[in-house]
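Subgroup meeting minutes
Present: P.N., E.W., G.H.
Scribe: E.W.

1. P.N. recapped why we're keeping a running log of single-chain structure predictions: easier to compare across weeks, and new members can see raw inputs and outputs side by side.
2. G.H. added today's entry (299 aa).
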Amino acid sequence: MSRGTSITTPPAAAAASGVGAATTPEPVLQVEQATLGYGRRAILREVSLRIGQGEFWCLLGSNGEGKTTLIKALLGAIRPIRGRVLLRADFQRRTRLAFVPQEVEVNAALPTTVAEFVSGGFVGLNLEARQRAQRLARVLELMGIPMLRDRSLWALSGGQRQRALVARALVRDPLLLIVDEPTAGLDLAAATGLLETITRLNREHRITVVFVTHDLQIAAQRATHAALFKHGRVVSGPLAEVFTDEHLGRTFGVPVRVVRDGVGGCSVVASNDLGGSSTPGSAAAAGTDFNFVPNLAPV
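Output recorded in log:
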């Protein structure tokens, strides 16, 4: 591929041919041998991944490994240096794609109600006033915050504000929802509630989720697929293939063990914790920025 290949939709001829359609549905989004970065500086090289409808992807890696760069490429904010980012035909204008940032990007000095903030998600959509009102009411109900619609955005708790952020994305009626560390800084109750809501959106409403996180347990318990970022390379695929002792240890630089429960679930533990003691090689001592739940099960 040549430098600066633009983001595009898959060729219509390939879809029309029907080849492989019975066994391999067309992905919502596909990255093909993409080198991504800024100017001439490559951050990620030869990235390939295929995201299907209804999948729950977790992107994991230490800070500075390129997760944000990939998200920008998926959103169309940067162009691939080489390779391609392919969108399904119904995503061409990105009206069915929504992004939830880590923080509210609104001037705190500006008086803003929850309803006003969430309605900001309508920008670029051609909807009548009645349609907007219906969508607004529906997403506030879906996120469990209809009673907060007239409250100041700045009077909300951290968990409530994160729910408003997700609601702002949902008014676009997305088929693909990209969420950037939504539980960072939340207490356990707020984080768990928000995770349950996002998981329900994925499983009940078939919204494809791309979830950026440092928490391995979130991926182990909720994801169908994962992508691991390290030294400019990305290992991606179904969770069972990607979540291995070798892949996770290489990604985070800490010995880990994946504990599988025999019915499709798994947990991740620090190898040094399996014997019941902490050593200088533990996650905290190594300075890594992800979370373990130690001693979940014997090995």
